[in-house]
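Moderator note: this is an archived Q&A kept for reference. The question asked for a predicted structure of one protein chain; the sequence and the answer are reproduced below.
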Amino acid sequence: MTTKTVDVLLVGAGAMSTTLGMLLKQLDPALKITLVERLDHVAHESTDGWNNAGTGHAAYCELNYTPQKADGSIDTAKAFAINSAFEVSLQFWSYLVEQQVLPAPQNFINPTPHQSFVWGDDNVAFLRKRFEALSAHPAFADMEYSEDPEILRDWMPLVMQNRKAGEAVAGTRVRYGSDVDFGSLARYMASHLEQQPEFEMLLSRTVRDLKRKADGRWRVKLKNSQTGEREKIYARFVFLGAGGGALPLLQMSGIPEGDGYGGFPVSGQWLVCRKPEIVEQHLAKVYGKAPIGAPPMSVPHLDTRIINGEKALLFGPFAGFTTKFLKQGSKLDLPKSIKANNLKSMMSVGLNNMDLTRYLISEVMQSHDARIEALRKFFPEARSEDWSLSYAGQRVQIIKKDRANGGGKLEFGTEVITARDGSLAALLGASPGASTAVNTMIGILERCFPEQMASVDWQSRMKAMVPSYGQSLVEDPVLLQQVRERTLSVLQLDSAPAPAPKLSAAAEPAEVRQSLAS
């Protein structure tokens, strides 16, 4: 058995771990870092381009980020938080392009307008309110709104083909939305990291044991699935960024902060069209409203995708259920994750989410024709023979204790769990996921490397990578304009000039501040 000692051990070679590794190496090139991955390739689970929507989530088009309150007003807090977090990712990626760490932007990110589309009087009224609430703030000042079928036909030709005359429709558009090939992005970062001193990539490694020793270090036992060789690594800091596989590893660690967490796996499927004569008619990500009872990850959308240079259209996702936590996982993943400390929470969630269960069963039972009918609500002229079914990656939604009610609650966001001493961090959950990876990983650095992050050296390096670091883009419209002009230019996402931002009282700054603080 080989044994080695490192400063940082990253588990899982996806968008999260490669982002954290890149940040750490930029902040301190002398750090000794090892990244281990269960598969024999980098970023081939949830991060892979075909396993996710590839939307650069900025809350421009995702209607589930702006729910309607009981009084009819629009809750914009999550939209502002996600928009601000995505701007952090754009700044970091721009820095890496400028430093020639990443290749030309079109290799991993492409301009793709972000649009919302609804039909029916009630939905049109909702979208109009949403537009009014968001566009009053500089972050969304470039958002356009229309109920004119001719304008909408120009924005989204396939969606507007042969619509019923007189049907109430509405749409919004932000021209500089993006399609991100997160798989390629992660692989570019991993490739750069492998060329750095004091960095090692270990593929085909499965974590078999994870234990904290008396000296504060973590002892991690690995098995090489190709050779059967056993390895042992001692690390001062461990990050569990293994997607759906992070929950079992968190449970293995035994840290009290992970007590009571469980997972609810949701699978996904896409309809894919690769016919050039259809694909070339659509350049947008068009999001609609989720069906009643559907999880947020099942918001329907018709997407332009550019993956490994190949252009295609995706529609979905269609949700499903499996007991696997990973696409290439085991059917025993869910049963094995049930422990004494999360059994009550998981049973409570199961009993209180029967509508979701019935919805997932109905999705699994759908025929190809039924999925095509769902597509035709977005693309009326869709033909069954032009579309094939593709299986997306697994998403494990968070189940945690509901201390107020004594049961459990199901959450559809992401959550970072860290050990009290900052020696271990784990990322659970799904959306908005990789889009906000940079902001999320900076948060981990602040919690787990507080002394270094407070140093003059790390502060100056952070500001070089993310110029807005330590400041609020929501509350500083001038800084927002400066940052956005740079990132849109460097990443080649927009050729049109943006109007000068104007801060409005309608921007709900107190609500935004509360969201960002949380």
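Archived answer notes: The longest strand covers residues 262-273.
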